[in-house]
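Figure 2 data, in text form.
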Amino acid sequence: MCRCCCCEMEKHHPHHEYRYEYWPMGFPWPTMDVEGEVKMLEEYKEALTKELEKINKRLETLKH
């Protein structure tokens, strides 16, 4: 698990290297090829979906 953003990605991923504060207007990563950006965003979406599932399970546990 990633320590800086708590996502499920185990390997280094671009948003660790390129933080929002380093880019004008909050652009989080430098220009990259479309395939690379799509892959990165799909991995990030998958990690966020897993985290959301954990949160929803925890919410259900707390409600009962």
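Caption note: Residues 14-63 form one domain.
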